[in-house]
Amino acid sequence: MEVIPILKQFGLSEKEIIIYLCLLETGPHSVRNLAEKTKINRGTTYDILKSLIDLGLVGYYHKATKQYFIAEDPAKLNNAIDQKLQNLNEVKERINQVIPSLKSLYDQAGEKPVVKYYEGHQGIKTIFNDVLETVDQLSSKEYLVFSTSTIKDHLYKAFPNFTKQRISKKIRVKVIAVGHGGTTAELAEVKSLSPREGSPTYIIVYHDKVVMISLSSKDEPRGIIIEDPALAATQRQLFEYIWRNIR
């Protein structure tokens, strides 16, 4: 069994392991000799020895005018683990005592927006899956879309049966379209805002979320999901106002 990975799991750094194993293998050393043997500078070696002493893995003694450091019995690793567990339990108790105060601060700040970023066709598929899964759980199965004709060819390459799945789930969609083209599928209403082409963007409003999709300079789709009830409500109001006033 390899020793070094286990000592790393225990929590020792690479340099601590080097010094600890050196003491185990070669016996007592002064700081200077140990630094020379391990090629770790003297100041760092001394700091590491203090850390290993605190863990109970290294001891020391004086001979003449020099101080020598020696590895303790490796069985003391178990003692160090027990001490760590005890310390963690004490920290856990203290954390539990302050959690109510921390939660009070968290609640005072109100709900915080969650933003997730996606790239490429698979990323856009993930976004559309979230739209279907989220809206399918709502009592009113509907979402809203602002769409430009210049982006539509980039949306469904990884999810060609999206519309079929939407219809099978009986999910309705309202679309405000910018630019030419576009077809009306089942359970979809489309109104044209302008025949002029717009920048390649696609905005979806559903439940407490807003999606924004655009194209990179290499025509790769990228999008974000913003989960924020206030933002979604504002976007929904804006959509409904435009929808009512389109002739």
From TrEMBL:
InterPro entries in the cross-refs: ArsR-like_HTH, TrmB-like, Tscrpt_reg_TrmB_N, WH-like_DNA-bd_sf, WH_DNA-bd_sf
One Pfam family matching this protein: TrmB
Transcription regulator TrmB N-terminal domain mapped to chain residues: 7-68
Transmembrane portions of the chain: none
Record's protein name: Transcriptional regulator
Source organism of this protein record: Candidatus Buchananbacteria bacterium CG10_big_fil_rev_8_21_14_0_10_42_9
